[in-house]
Every structure is written in C-alpha cells, then in structure tokens.
Amino acid sequence: MNRLFLAILLAIPAFAQQPTELYYLVFLRPSPERKALPKEQQDKIQADHMANIHAMADRGVLIAAGPFGDTPNTISGVFVFKTASLEEARRIASADPTVTTGRNTVEAYPWRGPKGVGEEYVKLHKADPKTAEDMGVHPLFLYMRGPNWSRVGEFVPAHQEYIAKLRADGKIAAAGRVESDTPLAAVFVYQRMPDADARLLADADPFVKNGVVQLEQHRWWCAAHVLPGW
Q1: In what order do the strands lie in the sheet with 62-67?
Q2: Residue 17 has what pLDDT?
Q3: How many domains does the chain have?
Q4: Which tens digits make up the pLDDT trace of 133-177?
Q5: Fewer CB atoms inside 10 Å of the end CB: C or N, the chain?
Q6: What is the pLDDT of residues 86-107, one digit of tens each?
C-alpha cells in the first residue's frame, strides 16, 4: 500500500463511524470464455452452485450471497465471507461449481462492513426453518476512485454528515470501505427502492459530487434480514 492510501484509511476510520467488522467480498464475474450450454447442463451447474452455497453457509463461512440482476451482466453474483484471510475466501470461492466449470471468475476484496451482516437471518431461520427468504433487489454501488481521489480527506466530514442523514432516514442497508490499494474504494448497499431513487441519493454524496469517487451501479438480489439496516 502506498502512503496516500494509508493516510486515507486513517482519515476514514469507518464510513459514518459505525461499528464494523472485516469481511471478504467475492464478486463472481462472467468468464470471458463463457460459452452457451444446453439447458440441462446449465441446470446441473446451478443446482450444484446452490448446494455449495448452503454447504458454505452451514460451515459458517458464508454469511451473505445473491445474484446480480444487471443488464448487461458484468457481475454474476457476490459472496460475503467471514474467513481467516482474503486468500482463504478466494480459495473457497474458487471451488464453487460456477467457477470450476469456467462460467465465472473470482474477484476478492477485504471489506470493512457493518457489524452483524447475516446474524438476524441465521437467528430467524434457526428458530423457524420455514422462514421466507423474501428475496428482493437492493441497489448496490461500487465507489471507484475518481479523478480527485487524492483530495478525499477534504470531503470526509461532509461525506460522513451526508451518510449519517441517509442512515437516520433508513435509506442505507450496509456500507463500508474496501481495505486494499485497488480502484475499488467502498461498497454501498441501499435499502430496497427504485434504482433511479437510489442513484439520486448516491449522486448527492459529497464524494461523488466532488469527483473523489465515481459510481458503478448494480442490482443485488438479497434475502430479507441479511443486511443489518446499518
């Protein structure tokens, strides 16, 4: 990590200064070599993929997951892991059937997200295994370093004030910085709302307005009670 990035981490101890936990995000991206397959083969891979998701969740390493519903499709889905290291998260994700069959590739990041991701979901489903999944779409934004990234410290107070207001208004489901020296700086997940409404809120963030970050918007299908509501 360069000195500028370390200084930025110190300047932003946590987005909106909420209790946080270190997770590992793995984005499953469509392989550039992906080819059309017969439906029977696609169904088999999907069934194996879902079985693997349940097995990872049962082991306690996978705490959230879900497909993306974008057009065009640049991310197939995401895993949120609680593992000992980024390397372990990458290794586990690389064993997923959609990866071993060449359908997806793995892109992994350490993510300082809100404490409690997945806890309410586990609690409710242990108490009643018939609890509905209630899948729904959350607007998800990747905060990519923008042309004014080197000025991030100037806008931290305004950013934190704005995000605190969104939290108070119940607009954000989860958010946090990515702890690596990569173009991806943070991930923000909004509560279920129309894409256009979420975009207006994200565009008003002082980081975005001042070119500190640029937004990449996605649609994440996630079960109810997974995200802590921040």
Answers
A1: 62-67, 77-81, 20-30, 104-114, 172-178, 184-190, 136-145, 213-222
A2: 55
A3: 1
A4: 999 999 999 999 999 999 999 999 999 999 999 999 999 999 999
A5: N
A6: 999 999 999 999 999 999 999 9
CATH number, domain at 86? Answer: 3.30.70.1060
| CA 189 vs CA 75, 150, 217, 222: distances in Å | 15, 24, 10, 11
Q: Is the pLDDT of residue 61 over 70?
A: yes
Q: CB of 14 within 8 A of CB of 159?
A: no
**227 in a structural domain:** no
Rounded average pLDDT over 40-47? 97
Q: 93 in a domain, yes or no?
A: yes
* Residue 32 domain flag: yes
Write phi, then psi, for 49 (nearest 5 degrees).
-60, -45
Q: Does residue 180 belong to any structural domain of this protein?
A: yes
Tokens 């059937």 found at = 97
Residues spanned by the domain of 29? 3-222
SS3 content of the chain, % helix, strand, coil (to 5): 40, 30, 30
Could you give the residue ranges of the DSSP H alpha helices within 60-194? 86-94, 97-100, 119-127, 152-168
218 or 12, higher pLDDT: 218
CA angle 187, 191, 192 (to 5 degrees): 120
Quote the tokens at residue 139.
């607007």
